[in-house]
Design goal:
Layout: H1 8-34, H2 57-84, H3 89-95, H4 100-130
Length: 132
Amino acid sequence: MPFKTHDPYLNTVKREIKDKYYKERKQHMSKNKEGIRESKSFLSQKVYLNDFINLPEGILNLLLFIAFVVIPYVAGIAFIFFLIANANFDTFDDININDYLIYWTIGYELLASMLIILVIFSAIKFKKLRQP
């Protein structure tokens, strides 16, 4: 039963460790923004997922898995509904695709292409910032 008891000292230590981690990350990010010209190449940069998503570590992995499953599916349904069926429910019903993987694959390809475009724009922006 030691895991079920409330230990204020343990909670304080955990909070201090988290606060120290977040302070170090903030310092690293502010130093990284100032020294963006110091990076040698776009692909050699370190990217921390916690800089963009502020969630506890245990929940983050579960949320990313759910997002990996749900977001492409919704994007695929939206693509077929708006672009192929022209936002008409009758036409959408006539398409008659009842397979989850087809919708998911279409959404995954859409999101992957958008992500590639974002990476290319980010690399171009990085190159422009590095130029003196």
